[in-house]
Structures
1.
Amino acid sequence: MMLKRAMFRCGQLCSRVFAVEFDLRTEPLYFTLSSTPQELHQAHQQLFGGDEKLFSLHVHSDSRTEKARTHAEIKHKLSVALSRDCDVFEASAFIPDVKNSVVKGFFIRDKSTTSLSEDVLKTLQQSKSVCVFSYKREGQYCWQELWSPVNQVEESVRQYVTPAAAAERHPSTLNITSSDVYYCMNDAYEVLRECTDIIPESKEVLKLVNEQLETSRGDAFPVIVIEGLDATGKTTLTEALRESLNATLLKSPPQCLAPFRQRFDSEPPLIRRAFYALGNYITAAHIGKESLRAPVIVDRYWHSTAAYAIATAVGGRVENLPKPGSELYQWPEDLLQPNLVLLLTVSPEERLRRLRDRGQDKTVEEAELEINQLFRLKVEEAYKRIQNPACIIVDASPSPREVLQQVEHLIRNKCHLKTTSSLPDETRSHAISPHTTRW
Ligand SMILES: Nc1ncnc2c1ncn2[C@@H]1O[C@H](COP(=O)(O)OP(=O)(O)OP(=O)(O)O)[C@@H](O)[C@H]1O
Ligand SMILES: Nc1ccn([C@H]2C[C@H](O)[C@@H](COP(=O)(O)O)O2)c(=O)n1
């Protein structure tokens, strides 16, 4: 039964292009499978040409939540259970330019002489969602075959590794829509609904969404979003703006989701990002209400959700990000748009100094950001590529007072507002009036 299932999965994969993130500084290694022997290119020789044991495994399932969780579990297991002699690379099998065609997995290169990797793979293969291949060499050629712990897969045919041209779009960009970034509320809502059995907190989050959603926005005061990597000064600035504009300060995710955040942060992107996406819709409902009374400042919103999600989903280099202008950078049609989005930027050195000075606990993602320069660059680049509205970049390296003045100036110009930091307190609340122009 297990073998039959594996053979079926194998058939589904064979016609795809395989990509292995062998060296994160360059393009992935791409190959297809062919029934006739093919000579390997020099680049492919680096991975397939040695005498190490090679395996790949791919995660299939008709249930997207099961697939996402199995992938995350395998990633964890491989990182803790394999020996130091094993290299694990992210891998995928996909159909070029076909959305949602990516089957994610891993490629394992085992330099050891022990059977530890086989033992680990044997347990992983028990899962009905996992399909394992091994790679064998003969002279110039390398072939892939369905792996079984006892090597008795008689029906498995040799499929020769055949170097393939680089894909125009990095494969990881093919599955972003509704797996990492949600472009309408329903898509995110559905993911959490599918999780209610395995994550009971999902029910409570959905209940909050149902209770709080309200999308009224009439002749309102302006809404200004402040974005940026952690420790770029968002909290400092948003609190100062609340004072100077006599504004309401909101955050995304909103306070009502705080008790659930840690729970969802430990879930794979499919589920974690759905949680943050729904947080934006609740914040949008709060914005709708509050902006009838006063200007609204928002600490993180859609730009953060999309930029972190895209940067996490896309492996390797900044060049792998979806190209500027891609539909992946578009604002969701059903999400309330702010009038102005400002992106605070500081140099990596200054940001690290601020992080160290603050010395607070960091989320895993923030800790990763600190050590992972590539990831930081991708988040910032993704921020800058998001459209409608695009963000305006603010150099946040001067003193808090100078940053505030700079931002007040921008708000005055872009929102046609009078900012009142220099006015006495009693005049402030009347200095900003609701606008009648389109936002
Ligand atoms: N303009 C500035 N110059 C120097 N230090 C600053 C400036 N703005 C903020 N800081 C300091 O940098 C640290 C991080 O600032 P803050 O908490 O405002 O950043 P943040 O973007 O809100 O971070 P996070 O997203 O992690 O909450 C704090 O210790 C703060 O006092
Ligand atoms: N609207 C939001 C807000 C936050 N996130 C994610 C992105 C990071 O992982 C993390 C940073 O938040 P902070 O620690 O500064 O509160 O939260 C998001 O995806 N969408």
2.
Amino acid sequence: MAEPGAAASAGRLLAMGVTGTVLALVAVLLLRTATFPEPDELRGWGRTGASRIPAQFSEAERTAMKEALKEAIQMPTVSFSSENINTTALAEFGEHIRKVFPFLFSTSFIQHEVVEQYSHLFTIHGSDPKLEPYMLLAHIDVVPAPNDGWEVPPFSGLERDGFIYGRGTIDNKNSAMAILQAMELLLRRNYVPQRSFYISLGHDEEVSGTYGAQKIAALLESRGIELSFIIDEGGYIMDDFIPGFEKPFAWISVSEKGGMNLMLQVDSDPGHSSMPPKETSIGILAAAVSRLEKTPMPNMFGYGTEKSILEQLAGQFGFPLNIILTNLWIFGPIMSRILEKSPATNAMVRTTVALTMFNSGIKVNVIPPTAQATINLRIHPAQTVPEVLEIVRNVVADDRVRYHVLNAFDPLPLSPHDNEAFGYQLLKRTIRDVFPEVTAVVPGICVGNTDARHYTNISKGLYRFNPIALNPQSFKSFHGLNEKISIQAYETQVAFLFELIQNADTEKVPRPHSAEHEL
Ligand SMILES: CCCCCCCC/C=C\CCCCCCCC(=O)NCC(=O)O
Ligand SMILES: [Zn+2]
Ligand SMILES: [Zn+2]
């Protein structure tokens, strides 16, 4: 029965446009739909009893894992472009992991291959061939980091106030090192997995993964390998994201946006700067990209995955939430306007356009013959590459601008995240074990791109989840300033992987409780 006056209250709140309240409401919708299974449902998961190895690490091990990460951060494995990567640092990284993870490189059931000189593929042969293998994925390259603005030099790996600072501490050497570290610690405890798995470390993720992940995926495909699921970066424990919600929640990205790098070019006759034409190539191009920046792509809230997710949820709630969810044609615009206010949530509701490079000019007194600007677009799941390109052309609306698509791909399909989805449920279960403060898990979309997208031919279960807690401030440090990870967070990441690898040693997926609802 409907609660008296609830509709009126909901109406008042929305009409008042109270940002925090509506955000909180969205959060309730998402969080309430993703509660954990009851403990009974989790029986039979992974190793139990005597064969279970506790995630307890000695002081010496904790110091060693911290130092190993710091050293990895000190290697400037920067990718500037596919043709310009720091091969010296990448090679050094290869030597580093051989030194700090000796068990990994000397265990008979583990095969290590170097792919395209700098990427690493480990095959860990499990004892039970009936269990379909999976993959843990990370990348070892980083984006450039000029010293300016950093509290400590970005490749110093310095420890300060319980944090390790440096480029790659959250994107994504933390994962690369933590995966290897967890396996090394398990091996030191005589662990032999039942389920086979792969560890894949790409060396050029930050420049599309063409020679790393893409080649590894092709290699595995040529061997006829299919994977139950893959876990990469791109989802996190979200902390302090929603006003009024103190508890962190886990965001497992079950898809990721499409992408396009588009170069715009204007050519004009060069000449003497003392007799300039009315418009130069720089001026024409600057005006074009300015129009793009000032004209956001359409807000797609309600037309992509959000719509189907929310519609599926609608029946699970009482009044007034069910009404709101089944009437997104009324409430959608309010929610979508709120979401577009911050960069992170704005990225969820539309294709984003970032002006990232601008090149022109050869001398101070020469009219430039050409100007080039590169824009980086992240395509909302409800749009495609051709649709977005068409919008760009219409916004620019200037025939003097020419377009070169440098690379482009459509948004990724949604990976299964129901009660039968082994990889998703494995993550949920391990989150429950390792992050007791987290009470909910939601299936999200990754607004950045990951190496996982290269593996669609060999797995349908691509999950992007890094077991670290991030707040809005730490999101700014991705590709930005003062990237850092707390030592405690890194240890927890290692512990998470240590548990997850053991939890994967089962064929059972927990049956849902009849009353439980899953996204
Ligand atoms: C209600 C809470 C809303 C929070 C919205 C946050 C959405 C976060 C989703 C994904 C996080 C994206 C992290 C980026 C991964 C980094 C991978 C990377 O750098 N790849 C290269 C590239 O994308 O260029
Ligand atoms: Zn990354
Ligand atoms: Zn990155």
